[in-house]
Amino acid sequence: MAEFGDSIEIAAAPEAVFEYLVTNEGMTAWMGQYADLDPTPGGQFAVNIAGHPVRGKYLRVERPTRVMVSWGFAGSEDLPAGASTVDFRLTRIASGTRVDLRHSDLPEAEVRGHADGWTNFLPRLAAVGAGVEVGPDHWQPLSE
Fold first, then answer.
1. Angle, helix 108-129 to helix 14-22, in steps of 10 degrees
2. Residue 54 belongs to what H/E stretch?
3. How many CB atoms lie within 10 A of CB 83?
4. For residues 141 and 54, is the Cβ–Cβ distance under 8 A?
5. Residues 6+ apart with CB under 8 A from 112
6. pLDDT of amino acid 98
7. Which pLDDT value is given to residue 144?
8. What is d(CA 106, CA 60) in angstroms, rounded to the nearest whole number?
9. What pLDDT was estimated at residue 3?
10. To which H or E segment does residue 34 belong?
11. Closest Cα partner for 89 from 28, 24, 12, 6?
């Protein structure tokens, strides 16, 4: 299994950024077209991204410093629902918040596509977290 990691800085307090990881409206402001979230340990994590149903569970919810979810695709044999783990760690810094993302337990064949996705979505999170309207997302997965 492989892992992807990245970090961004957001001009907002961790308390504000945290809401973009645990509310339906917050999540869809930067990633996906639909979200049905229950941000409690064991609660549902469901986001539709570019027609792909990401499904998993919230594993850790530590307001306002950490959100960890299981992640995979409903109906996928390559990366089934809940098969990988996404860990968001929020750290207060002078300019606002640093978000460190670690997506682990990825099959090697899934790393390139997920890296492409996170490279699209993390800057969108930074923008909306700082109060910038980014509009609908039109990202599409890489074709193999």
1. 130
2. strand 52-62
3. 19
4. no
5. 142
6. 98
7. 52
8. 19
9. 97
10. strand 34-37
11. 6
Residue 141 DSSP one-character state: P
Query: In sequence order, what are the residues at sequence separation of 6 or more whose Cβ sits closer than 8 angstroms to the Cβ of residue 119?
Result: 6
**Contact present, 118 and 137 (Cβ < 8 Å):** no
Q: Who's near 87: CB < 8 A, 6+ residues apart?
A: 60, 66, 67, 68, 101, 102, 103, 104
In the chain (144 residues long), the average pLDDT of successive 10-residue segments reads 97 98 97 97 97 97 98 96 98 98 97 96 98 92 73
Pairing between β-strand 2-10 and β-strand 96-106 as defined by DSSP bridges: antiparallel
Backbone angles phi, psi at 29, to 5 degrees: -65, -25
Say what the pTM is.
0.96
Report all structural domains of the chain as residue ranges with CATH numbers, in order of start: 2-129 (3.30.530.20)
Q: Are 45 and 55 contacting, i.e. CB atoms less than 8 angstroms apart? A: yes
Chain centroid, CA 37 distance in Å: 12
Residue where the block lists tokens 């299981």: 70
Residue 66 corresponds to which tokens in the numbers above?
């950490």
Phi and psi at residue 134, to the nearest 5° = -100, -10
